[in-house]
Amino acid sequence: MNQPADQTLPACDTSKRFVRVTERRADGLVSFEFSIGWPELAVELMLPAAAFEAFCTDNKVQRLDT
User: Tens digit of pLDDT for each residue in 2-61?
Assistant: First the structure.
């Protein structure tokens, strides 16, 4: 897909990872949004709390919900 010449996309730094927690459920699952490069473009994921903390550590995320 070609972008019009006057429309430039912002730079994307793929080394930056972002997490925004949307819900901590009573059953221990954490629902969150994860994005790479642009915090505005995210996928929704759900993990058990311990796995979520490991995911954040492994990906060196910047928390957007705090």
Answer: 656 667 777 889 999 999 999 999 999 999 999 999 999 999 999 999 999 999 999 999
Q: With contact defined as beta carbons under 8 Å apart, do 19 and 62 qualify?
A: yes
Q: Name the pTM for this structure.
A: 0.81
Structural contact between residues 64 and 43, judged by C-beta atoms closer than 8 angstroms: no
AA identity, residue 42: A
Dihedral (Cα; 10, 38, 13, 34), 10-degree rounding: -170
* Integer Cα distance of 36 and 12 in angstroms: 8
Within 10 Å of residue 35's Cβ, how many Cβ atoms? 18
Per-residue DSSP letters for 8-32? -PPP--TT-EEEEEEEE-TTSEEEE
